[in-house]
Every structure is written in structure tokens, then in C-alpha cells.
Amino acid sequence: MVGSANALPGMEANWESVLAGGHPLDAAIETVKIVEADPNDASVGLGGLPNEDGVMQLDAACMDGETHNSGAVGAIENILHPCEVARLVMERTDHCQIFGEGAYRFARSHGHPHTELLTEKARRRWIRWKESMSDQDDRLPPPKEPEAEKHGSLPTRFERHGTIHCSVLSTRGQVACTTTTSGLAWKIPGRVGDSSIVGAGLYCDGEVGSAGSTGRGEAAILSCGSHSIIELLRQGKAPIDAGHEVLERIVRQTQRMAQWQPSLLKADGRPAFNVHFYILDLRGRWAGVGLSGHANFAVADRDGGPRHEKIVPLLG
Ligand code: ASP
User: Fold this and answer.
1) Hey, what CATH class is 2-133+147-313 in?
2) The predicted structure's pLDDT at residue 44
């Protein structure tokens, strides 16, 4: 199992089922559901930070390498486990993705309950953001210090993210993966990121391996990041080299984009944001890579069990 750092508790809970020969998609979905339901994780599902209207809109997708099928929901509201709804799209429809109101109605038709996902803590952070974002509207900023101390500081533009990804290779050599998120905090309503887009925020191929991403979704979409990694693995690259090659492309693509959006780059010419990829091939080799900085990712293998390892940054 390979995934984002926040997948560790789920890996600990589901690792035995993988060792016992369980289906990789069952293990991946059960792993991410733990974070979807955790009100203390501010980046995924319940307790996540809402869009600019204060509404929680979630994105999720899953893919099964054995059947080469996928399912996704995007901008879905009031559903606790969008990863399970993505699986229903895959298994109970002839479609790959259902977004918006239709996704909610589809989930309800399969018995998923209507759930309020905006916690009081997240609502207070959202209203503090709304009241502080401009001095040209009629909302007045709250007293800063006590609010910030109680509810945590507000994320800056390129910190407004968080997601969970999990890729699994079964004892029978099958791969599957899932990615689920509440997306960027304060996003424009209806914005769908990479987590719902097969080829961007996740991809697996039963002949090759599995990959997924967290971080700036637009960069994963514009590079077809997870699919590109799988194609590089297919050509014989090791997971870490495949990941770094796609990150190098993202750097070059961002430098071109910065011609019209300069804030995408820092003063030293590096991207102002981060992207992580989690990669697993059929030989059981894995990597966790990122653009820059120190971070962990989660791994569980037969020898070492579930644990954190260090992301290998491209740019240090
Ligand atoms: N990739 C997610 C998105 O862009 C956010 C994240 O992973 O932090 O929606």
C-alpha cells in the first residue's frame, strides 16, 4: 500500500486484509474512509474547509486495474463517503463520472444518507476568511488573535489543500486506487480538482501499476500527472524516476504559465505550490515524490508493515 501521509491510520486498519489476500480496491476504499469521516482532518470530507460560499463540495474517484474501470464524483455535497459513491458509479453505471447535484441524487438513490459536513470549527474559519479577505466590502474582520488561537490560522493561497490517496497491490498482483478530497479551501463553487479526474489525481493499469497525487490539482490535471507516470513505468522507468520526470514537466509547464500568472512562481523561479505523487509498480517497488520541501508519505509492505517514509523532493 502506498499513499499520502494521512493514509497511515487507514493502512494500519486494513493492512491485514491485504496480507490475507483481500481485494486491493476494498483495502484502498476502507483506508480513505477513515479520513473522510474524521472531523479533525481539515482537508477531506467531514471537517474539511468549504468553498467560497461556505458549502462543502467533495471530489473522489477510484480505479480498478484488473477490470480497467473507474468511477468518480465531483463537487458532491452532503455525502460522507464520496469514495464509495465513486465506486458505485464504477460498478453500477455505464459512466465514469457524475458531478454536482446529479452525484448527490445518485448517492441518495443508493442509500447514502444526507449529512451536514461543515463542522462548527470549519464554519468559523470560513467566516473569518470571508470577513478578512477584502477591505472593500461591508463585512468587518473579527478580533484576530482570540479567533486564530482557537480555530487555527487561515491557510495561505498555496496552502489551501489536502487530500488522501491510497494505491494498493494485492498478493495476487492486482492494483487499485482511490483519491478523495474536499479540494481547495475557499474554491469557486463547482470547481473540480484532480482527485476526480482519472489520469490526473489517480490512475492505475493492471499491466503496469498505480499512482495518485495530492497538492495543486490544476498542475496534476495539466500534466495528466498520474497517467503520465504510469506510461513512464510502462516504458521501464523506476517509480522515483517516473515521478521526478513528471515533476520536471510540471516545473517547465508552470514557468510557461507564469507568463500570465506570475504568482505561480516564487522569486527564485520555482513553483510557489507543491504537488506530491505516490507510485507503486507491479513488482512492488514504490516512491513518494514531491516538488520541494520535507514531507512524509505512507507505505505498508510485507517486510516493514505500515509506516511513514520521506517524500523525495525534486528541487530539495
Ligand atoms: N489536489 C487537491 C485538489 O486540487 C487538493 C490537494 O490535494 O491538496 O483539489
Assistant:
1) alpha beta
2) 85
